Amino acid sequence: MSNIVIQKTPVVVVGSGLAGLTATYKLLQQKTPVILIEKLDKFGGNSIKASSGINGAFTSVQQSYGLDDSVEIFLKDTIKSAKSLGDLQLQETLVNESKKAIEWLQQEISVSLNIVNQLGGHSTKRTHRSDGIPPGFEIISKLQKKVLEFEGLDIKFNSKLISIDSQNDKIIGLKYLNLLDNSEIYLKTNNLIVATGGFGFSKKLLQKYKPELVDFPTTNGAQTLGEGQEIISSIGGSLIDMEQVQIHPTGFIKQDDRENNWKFLAAESLRGVGGILLNSSNERFVNELETRDTVSNAILKQKDQKATLVLNEDMYQEFKFQIDFYSKMKLLEKTTIAEKFKDDTTKVIELLKKYSQQPSDSNNKDENIEIIDQYGRESKQHVFKNVSADSIIFSGEITPVVHFTMGGVKINTNGQVINTKDQIIDGLYAIGEVSGGVHGANRLGGNSLLECTVFGNRVAQHIINSDIDVDDDIGLKLKQQLVL
Question: Where along the chain do the CATH 3.90.700.10 domains lie?
Fold first, then answer.
């Protein structure tokens, strides 16, 4: 008779963003109990604010659009954006499992992801989202609902990790703080998944690793203080690429609260659907779909380190749900070209006409003349048609912001934490922005939600597989069936 023993010791997950929720769902699905610790009083972390989408290569949605993509092309884009930094094995895992991640969200979590856009640094359209709803909000909302349907989940809101207990490089427990009554609680566990996010709001860690960005505005929530990185490092966990901090080029400057250090992110899809950037002289100055670091540096070279994002009604219809939100928050303004640019109306009209030229606009209809964008922009999902002084536009003022920390805890492809001796800390996992090595020097838009989904699933599956004690062929077959 086979002897297959599935351990019932709870796995502790710290953080309820997409990485933590993905791992939690996968574990509960396999009847592994989970204690979920969350610093805030609600699910979602920074993931819930994601507004552009999740990447996938060679997906059925891409194929329905007739798009030519592959994991090889996606990997090349990822490595180029990372400037050859980071961990190649992690990057290969990310792109190789991207199609599976999209299918998992569609089939298991019921997220349609039926639209694809092209973001900066991508060779083609591969960033998936659903029609009419922000992707981060949709994914977190539906995943949260699924998670809450399971038994075996113990949620600790308003609680934060304060220490990890290990013995001989093996996890034996942790301590967390109840923020409501300041009590400290110790939990025994053999498996701890840390998904606490980045450190983009921590002046202390920015001062240590990237001091020139200490006073930069940020899109990060106040909970992203890098505590996961610090605590894991304190027990011997290795850190990688901590100085690699991403500046996102487009954080909205709210006109009635200009000096606020926290900024709403202007989604990269606003440029992906055709939006352009103008400097204070009302001139274009960059390929708006270059990588985030390149566009950010171009804005920072302008005399006021700001730019104006401009879209038209076709672009509005493509991204209506998000633009309506930005307009409601008074981050985007609906005007005519003449109202917005006044003395520069004629200049802006000519600029928009030039940007919008297509090969069919050539006077010589018999020749296939390629009209090259002056800044090398190839992807223009929508352009500015029939431009006049009365043309409706949507515009907003933006500036570069601290957005994502690529560096973090060193992990392997199963999300296991690696210590400073290059050895695994048994039972300790790090996923999402708390980990490092996936994105190198610069993250591609759409790769954050993908990282959370891919490695959240991988970590949970590794724990499930590790918790099966197999002593015969029947058990071995069962274990093999559980492997993704």
Answer: 247-401
**Rounded distance between C-alpha atoms, residue 51 and residue 134, angstroms:** 5
Round to whole Å and give the CA distance between 374 and 439.
Answer: 29
| C-alpha torsion 34→40→41→44, nearest 10 | -70
Rounded to 5 degrees, what are φ and ψ at 241?
60, 35
Tokens of 453: 């989904």
Question: From the candidates 271, 292, 382, 403, which is the catalytic residue?
Answer: 271
Q: What is the reported pLDDT for 364?
A: 45
* 343 burial type by CB count under 10 A (0-12 exposed, 13-18 middle, 19+ buried): exposed
Place of tokens 């953080």: 15
Region(s) of the chain under CATH 3.50.50.60:
5-203+406-482
Annotated catalytic, 439?
A: no
Give the CATH number of domain 247-401: 3.90.700.10
What are the angstrom distances between the C-alpha of 356 and each of 298, 371, 392? 22, 10, 16
Instruction: Name residues of the chain where pLDDT drops below 70.
Output: 1-8, 358-371, 468-484
Q: Catalytic residue among 126, 128, 129, 248, which?
A: 248
pLDDT at residue 8 in the model: 57
What is the gyration radius of the CA atoms in the chain, in angstroms? 24
User: Is 248 a known active-site residue?
Assistant: yes
Name the CATH superfamily for 5-203+406-482.
FAD/NAD(P)-binding domain (3.50.50.60)
Contact 10, 24 (CB under 8 A): no
